[in-house]
Amino acid sequence: MTSIILCAAGSGTRTGFPVNKTLCDLGGMPVLCHSLSVVAPFADELLVACRKEDEGAVSPLLSQYENARTVLGGKTRTESVYNALKEAKGDIVLIHDAARPYLSPELVKRVLESVQKTGSGVAAVAATDTVVFTGENGYALPPRENVYLLQTPQGFAREPLLAAYEKAMRSGKTFTDDSGIYAAYVGSPTLVQGEKENRKLTFAEDFAPCERVGFGADTHAFEHQEEIDRGIARLNLNYITLCGTVIPSNRALKAHSDGDVPVHALMDALLSAADLRDIGYYFPDSDEKYKGANSMELLAEVMELVRGQGLKVKNVSISILCELPRLSPYIEKMRETLRAALGCGHVAIAAGTNEKLGYIGEGRGITAYAMVLLAKQG
């Protein structure tokens, strides 16, 4: 039998929120619900350690789980887990911080399988930064290959863990997780491959989306001979510019700037994902300053705005629809240009026709669509 304990008894003072952070909204439902939905399928018994003042808010969230109930938390995490352990009935106990809502079912499964094989399983990821110890013994750099960052879930055979907790409670020592208590009174636990995404929500900024998606679209018409004859169209009909790349063409595109259709769509996608205004706001076609403007220079300005929001480009996908000119010989050059401008290695560009349908199929214009994925810098 497996008992799963969710730790939700903290006050979350470091977030600055007036309520328990595990009860705060994350993507449309409380943080606690995200953790519950992942661990519940593995539990014969679900115990949620919470403060007495939060029990009225937590209990309704457990109503869909027949095997779930609250347990009164303590002043420390150690006290909260100890209270739950005393009530748990399973021979295997898995403990998880409810404030880590991004764990996967695969991680839970790995931890439980480790407990079944070795008696313990602790989620951990290898440190990628150099770690330093400072204190009375001076400045010490342990070998990085021996350093791991511990996460939850952490699973153990219940009886030895409960005995270890009883000793820890009597000792009065401070422990920050279950593996520390197990290591102090039982032995070294087995480490299980954790997940970078399995981060703990600690500060207010941790509740902001890690990734943002933006969409943009743009269309430009080709200039026609009658407009050229009337002197209202550009005379240079030898090329168009797409994604900062000059492409031979027998007709130019109508535009206030250089008419770089996919870059305009991309700029709107970037601004949308960064929760900013559209390109018409920043670069109005009523402003002579932008007449004939180089769109790649405008893209550079947009990137400054995006970085100012603490964001970076993670992925870009662009689709260009036109009958002529033929774009396939220029796709790789276009990708290289955008990769350099965005500082992003993942730029996809697809070009297609519209099967002779509509203004695109009739060769009267070009349309481009862009999707971007932004992520927090750092």
Keywords:
378 residues; alpha/beta; Spore Coat Polysaccharide Biosynthesis Protein SpsA, Chain A; 60s Ribosomal Protein L30, Chain: A; 12 helices
Question: Can you walk me through this structure?
Answer:
The protein has 378 residues and is an alpha/beta fold. The chain has twelve helices and 17 strands. It folds into two domains: 2-201, Spore Coat Polysaccharide Biosynthesis Protein SpsA, Chain A, CATH 3.90.550; 211-376, 2-Layer Sandwich (60s Ribosomal Protein L30, Chain: A). It is 30% helix and 27% strand. The strands form five sheets. The chain has a seven-stranded mixed β-sheet with strand order 5-4-1-6-10-7-11, with helices on both faces. The protein has a four-stranded mixed β-sheet with strand order 12-17-15-16. A two-stranded antiparallel ribbon has the order 2-3. Strand 8 (133-135) and strand 9 form a beta hairpin. Helix 3 (77-87) packs across helix 5, helix 5 crosses helix 6 and helix 8 (261-273) runs parallel beside helix 10 (295-308). The radius of gyration is 29 Å and the shape is elongated. The two termini are 42 Å apart. The mean pLDDT is 90.
